[in-house]
Amino acid sequence: MEFNDLQQTRYEKLRQFQAAGIDPFPARVPKRTHTAAALQAAFDALLASQATVTIMGRLRTRRVMGKSSFAHIADDSGSFQVFLSKRDVGDEAFDRFVDLVDLGDFVAATGYVFITKTGEPSVHVTSWTMLSKTLTPPPDKREGQFSDSEARQRQRYIDLAANPAQRETFRIRARLISAMRRYLDEQGFLEVETPVLQPIYGGAAARPFKTHHNQLHQDLFLRVATELYLKRLIVGGFDGVYEIGKDFRNEGVDRFHNPEFTMLEVYQAFADYTDMMTLTEGMVAYAAEQIFGTTTLDFQGTPIELAGPWPRITMRDAIHNQTGVDIRECRELESLREAIREAGLKVEYKPTWAKQVDELFSECVEPTLIQPTFITEYPQPLSPLAKRKADDPMFVERFELFAIGAEFANAFSELNDPIDQEQRFLEQGRDYAAGDDEAMQMDTDFLEALKVGMPPTGGMGIGIDRLVMLFTNQTTIREVILFPHLRRAQTEE
Q: What is the domain extent for residue 470?
């Protein structure tokens, strides 16, 4: 194993521990009596009883003053000061603590609590134990080390160890998922698991990742969505199901996209997309209240109000209000492009009317949607799994939820007509043959399921990672995923 100069210095200290018969990586450790936070909470009682305590964690600071030393030991709950003196721990143990222990090393300290002359609660150490010798020094914040965001994401273990605030982001993430799960459980939904490896990918317009099963001699795809399997369960008789899990889409990487991401999808029998709006409003507001005690969150200096009801605006009205272009009046590709030109809008041309509408919305409307807003009634070709609107079959019963200028959720009144669904799949197949590599594939087994009969159903999917961004005031998805996908480092072959 190769070491740089700083690592080599620490390695030599490791060898000195071993030469003294001390294992720098012991298999057994003393029993921890308190975390740093628990010790702080119980300090007065422990001070009165003079009970023996043991804390353990990383050495964060150390000040040596002759024959005594103050230090701070940090664990996941916080840090606590300890005091060592030669008189109490002995010359050899004290010298090893001063000379061989480095910042970042894991140690255990046993003793009794007291208050220093400066009034700081501390542990008066009577013995200490080496738990794990670290070879790489922690980053020096005073020198600006490890401030590059990509470096922090690439070596998340250093980021988390050095920055307690980063750990809080992922605590909030865990609490958010727990709150959403609790909300759905209390509403009577059943949590289920569906296949990650699928013979046919579907449920979203996305390029898949492909793999191969050697034993079955079969190509498989990492799922792009859980939708089609969850709707099979509604066919099977469940009234409400949901799944929280990973989806995989072979797409670009930016501040809102990561190829591997976490989704919640929920389906409810005898419901429609308006019921999904109510469910989404209630669940998100409930999670905020559970975590923060309020439904008003700060995002980059802007208060975001999560208490419903949220505005509900048709896509037609949203585009017309922002640009003056009326997509219901411009129902052909060329007339829509002409209206875009006349409005002086800089919008990339797309090959179909529906995709042009989507591009117009994405460029001109989406960035303006800061407060939670439902955008409803999408063009049918963009929504091959949604029911058409009875009064205008060119549009479907669908909404997307937007906030902070990004999409958070997507929902339909689910298409349950197997004949119509087959025609939608065929249309998607023609698009795929024409070069649209995000078009859905024909799923004959799903059509067979619809033939068995699916009741009127509302379905919704919400991106967990983007919701965590909002809840933790982060501007990039990579800051809320523990190990985001990154380009290969330049030093790697």
A: 162-311+371-479
